[in-house]
Amino acid sequence: MLLPALIIIVVIAFIDWKYRRIPNSWLVILLGWAASYAAFSPEISFKIIAMNVVIGLTLTLPGYIKGIVGGGDVKLMLAISPLWPPMQLLSIFSAGILSLLLLMAIAHFFSAISLTKAHYPSQCKSTTTAPFKRGLPLGSAIALGAIVVTLFRLIT
C-alpha cells in the first residue's frame, strides 16, 4: 500500500532535484494518499501522526527559518507524517540526508574531473559547485530515504 506514495514521492523528488521547488498540487495528492493509508492502517494512529508532525517540524523548521530549505520541504515532511511510525520517519530523514550528501559529493567529484574541464575551463567553474550553490533538495533526500528504508524493511 506504500507503493503509490513512494511513486508520488519519487516524482516530487525529481521535481525538487531539477527545479528546487515542490508543487503544492503534488503535496495535496501525497497528503490525500497518506491520509487514506492512515485511515485504513491499524498501526498508524492519531497519536503517531501527531508525534510525526512534531518530528517533521523539528527537523525542517529550523532549516526553513535559516533559509537552507524551502517551505515545500517542510510541507513534504508534514504530508508524509501519516505514512510511517516515528522511528521509521527518523530513519527515512537520516538515510535520505546521508544518501543525498553522498550523491551530491559524487556529482561534484565527477564534474570536477570531467573532460570538458580540460577543454572549456572557464565554463566549468560554475558547474563544479553547482550542486551546493542551489541549496539542499530536501524533497530528494526524503525520497531517497523513503526508498532505502522501505526496501530495507522488505528485505529483512
Could you walk me through the main structural features you see in this protein, from its secondary elements to its overall organization?
With 156 residues, the protein is mostly helical. It has one domain. The protein is 81% helix and 0% strand. It contains nine helices and no strands. The mean pLDDT is 86.
How would you summarize what this structure contains?
The protein is mainly α. The protein has helices spanning 3-19, 24-40, 46-66, 71-80, 86-112, 115-119, 121-128, 130-133, 138-155. Helix content is 81%, strand content 0%.
The assigned structural class equals mainly alpha
User: Approximately how much beta-strand content do the residues carry?
Assistant: under 5%
Oligomer: single chain
Low-confidence stretches: none
Give the SSE layout.
Layout: H1 3-19, H2 24-40, H3 46-66, H4 71-80, H5 86-112, H6 115-119, H7 121-128, H8 130-133, H9 138-155
For the structure shown, list the relevant keywords.
156 residues; mainly alpha; 9 helices; globular
